[in-house]
Amino acid sequence: MIGWYVHHQGLGHLTRLQAVAEHLSSPVTGISSLPAPDGWPSEWLQLDRDDRMPAGEVVRADPTAGDVLHWVPRHDAGLAHRAAALTEWVARTRPSLVVVDVSVEVATLVRLCGVPVVVLAMPGERTDRAHVLAYDLADALLAPWPEAAHATDWPGSWRDKLWAVGGISRFDDRVPSRRRTSLGSAAGCIEALADGPRPSGPEPDEPSPRRVLVLWGGGGRSTSAAEVAAARAATPGWEWVERGPGSPSPDLWADLESADVVVTHGGQNAVAEVAAARRPAVVVAQPRPFDEQMATAAAVDRLGAAVGVRAWPLATAWPGLLERALDRGGEGWRRWSTGQGAASAAARLDELAARHDRHDRHDRHDRTGDDIRTAS
Question: pLDDT-based confidence at 360, cuts 50/70/90?
């Protein structure tokens, strides 16, 4: 059995678990301070929260233990309750391994219980003491991005256990059926299908506007509504549609396929969804710890998958950015996403779980034999 810890911040960690769990042969137990998502088919261990201490008290509670860890404020009752629940679950169920997405403290606690750990490898600067601890103790580092994106300057000990499976998306099993592209001209733009000939007949007098799909995540944003409005005003001939926690998409795949250009934040799951749909894109980094989204925006730009920028650009830059994204196209996403990321991750986890399950059975058999010989 596999345990899978899900961090409560944002929506991407939970979405990633659901995408991979569909492909797992091993039974999986979700572990989080979040409740089980609707339709979750198996066990779920809901932990106490560890972030209820008033902000004024946190500063005095040494939350990083002298920069050794990320979040362990002294005398936080939630920390003790969640640690007790997690270790009791480990002792009772004896999982073959636990996937941690993401928490240095959970990874360390589980490994202290003698359980193999697979840590989700994240973009950005991860050379602080806490991340080094988690990455060093992990049996494997599961990366939902290609190795060339972030791991080229990693130490050899990390690369040796890296599973760089590429983007992990809930849409990995879909093949984009309709490509909407734009044929620019002085008069405007004409829609066409990239996988077939243009329809016959006269061209419309008033071509439909090209569409920008803007994707926001659940982890917060620094870009204001006024900045988006200014970009919209600066790009006549483009229709802007926003989707996010406040305006969820009724059908995200359809939204992606109908977009000429997707403008997305640099979160791993949003980028993976766009990659799965192979849409031209501008990836705009939002502020995150360890410069995670800046690293992703730089990587997609460097690999030619999309246009990446470090922050929301000035309104005057948007006409050129959208045209650059169109010129680059969406096929560069093949360097980021194989379309098999979730299935590949599941296969690796199943293999590792089976290997450790065999070791555990042999260990229990050997100890039972020793007990019998001692008793006789």
Answer: low
SS3 279: coil
How far is the CA of 183 from the CAs of 188, 207, 320, in angstroms? 8, 10, 16
C-alpha torsion sign, points 51, 65, 268, 167 = negative
Does residue 148 share a domain with residue 12?
yes
223 with 366, same domain: the answer is: no
Residue type (1 letter), 337: S
Co-location of 309 and 322 in the same domain: yes
Asked whether residue 323 carries a pLDDT value surpassing 50, the answer given is: yes
Q: Which helix (H) or strand (E) holds 26?
A: none
The CATH number for 97's domain is 3.40.50.2000
Quote the distance between the C-alpha of residue 215 and its chain's center: 14
Per-residue confidence (pLDDT) for residue 246, from 0 to 100:
87
Alpha carbon distance 177, 169 (integer Å): 17
Residues paired with 329 in a beta bridge: none
249: CB partners within 8 A, 6+ apart: 243, 255
In a domain, 219, yes or no: yes
205: domain range? 180-335
pLDDT band at residue 368, thresholds of 50, 70 and 90? Answer: low
Q: How many structural domains is the chain composed of?
A: 2
On whether the CB atoms of residues 127 and 31 are closer than 8 A, the answer is no
Residue 30: CB partners within 8 Å, gap ≥ 6? 4, 6, 17, 36, 40, 42, 43, 44, 45
Residues in contact with 339: Cβ distance below 8 Å, sequence separation at least 6, in sequence order: 172, 173, 175, 276
Q: Is residue 85 part of a domain?
A: yes
β-partners of residue 283 are 264, 308
CA angle at residue 274 from 271 to 276, to 5 degrees? 110
d(CA 209, CA 186): 14
Query: What residues contact 292, with CB distance under 8 A and at least 6 apart?
Result: 122, 123, 124, 266
Q: Report pLDDT digits (tens) over 188-239.
A: 333 334 444 444 555 555 568 999 999 999 888 999 999 999 999 999 999 9
Distance from CA of residue 81 to its chain's centroid? 27
**Residue 281, domain member (yes or no):** yes
Verify that 8 and 87 share a domain, yes or no: yes
Does one domain contain both 156 and 186?
A: no
Rounded-to-integer distance, Cα 1 and Cα 62, Å? 36
Same domain, yes or no: 232 and 159: no
